[in-house]
Amino acid sequence: MSSLDLSYYEPFHRNAVLNGKRWHYVDIPGDSSGSLGRGKTLLLVHGFPDTWYGWRHQVPVFRKHGFRLLIPSLLGFPRSEAPLTHPGVATGEKFDGHNVHKELGLEDENIQELECYTADFFAKSMVQLLDQLGIDKVCSFGHDWGAVFAPRLWLNYPERVECVSSACWYYQMPMEGFVDLKDFAEVAPSLRYQLYWGGDAPQEVIQKPLKEFMDRMYHHPTENHLLTSEAEYNNILKEFQYGGKTIAPMFPLYKSRKLAYDIDERDFLTKGRTEEDLAVDVPYLFIGAEFDIALQPGMESVLEGYVKEGLLEKQWVPCGHWVLFEEPEKMNKIYIDFLKKVFGSSKL
C-alpha cells in the first residue's frame, strides 16, 4: 500500500488532550531493519493550508531508515480541535495594523483562544505529548507555519530536541521591539498577502466552495496545473472536509503575531536572555524554495545570527512553495543526508 493513499494511515491515527485541547496526530513506527533512525523520533509539522498528509512523500523514506514519526494536526485544522470557530471577532491585529491586545486584556475569551495558535502553545502541547508517549527527544522538522513551530520546541525545551529543520520559513528568535505586520510587509512585500489572511479572508473564504480556495493554493501560479497528482489532491480535499468543518478556524494563525510577541517578551526578553542564549545550539537544516512567492532568497540570511557557528546548513530546491511534494526526491535526499550527519559518521 502506498503512503499516498489515505488508507495507509488508518492504523496510525491518534488523539490526545494536550494543554487542555484535543490534538490529532499520526504515530507511525519505523521499520525494524532501518539502523539510522533506530530509537529516534521525527516530529513533522505541517503548515497552511495543509494537513498531516502534507508529509506523505517523506513518510516511507523516513520509515525505511527506522525513524518513528509523529505528525500532529495543528489546532484549527482538520481532525484537531478548532479553538476559534468564529475568527472574525476582534482577536488582536486588525487589518489596518492597529493592535487591541492591551485594550482587550489577556483574560478576554478570544485572546485566551488565540493563544492556542501560537508557537509557544504548540511547544508546550508537544512536550506533553512526548511525556505521554515516553519519548525523551525528537528531531523537530517543519514546513511553512510548521517551520515557525518546529524550532520553537527547541527554544522552550532545548533538552528535548536533537536537531531542527525548517522548510520555507525559519526560526523566529525573540527580539526586542514588535514590528506590526503592516510595517513588516512594507519591508518584505512578498508577505503582503498575510494582511488579507489576517483580516477579512475567513469571512470571504467560507462564502465560497472550499475547492475554489484550494484550487488557488495547489495550482501552479502561472501555468495553471495541479502541483500534485489528481489522486493526492482529492485526498487533500477529503482531509479538509473531514468532520464537516470550514477552514475559517485555521486563519487565526495570521492574527496571532502580536500575542506571540507578548509571550516572547514575558518569557524571554524581560528575563535578560541574550541573543547568544537564544541562538539554536543543535544542528539546524534550512531548506528554501527558489520560486517561493513568500520566502525569497536572502530573507533567511538572519539565520547566520540565529544559529550557533558550525551548526547551520542551508539548501535551496528549484521549485515553488510546496517543496515536500513538488520535489520529493530532492527533499528526501536532503533530509536523509542531514540526518546521517547528525546521527551517522558524517559531520556538519
From TrEMBL:
Gene3D superfamilies associated with the record: alpha/beta hydrolase
InterPro entries found in the cross-reference section: AB_hydrolase_1, AB_hydrolase_fold, Epox_hydrolase-like
MF (Gene Ontology): hydrolase activity
Keyword Hydrolase: yes
Domain annotation AB hydrolase-1: ranges: 41-328
Pfam families for the chain: Abhydrolase_1 (PF00561)
Keywords: Hydrolase
Family: Belongs to the AB hydrolase superfamily. Epoxide hydrolase family.
Name of protein: AB hydrolase-1 domain-containing protein
Organism expressing this protein natively: Yarrowia lipolytica
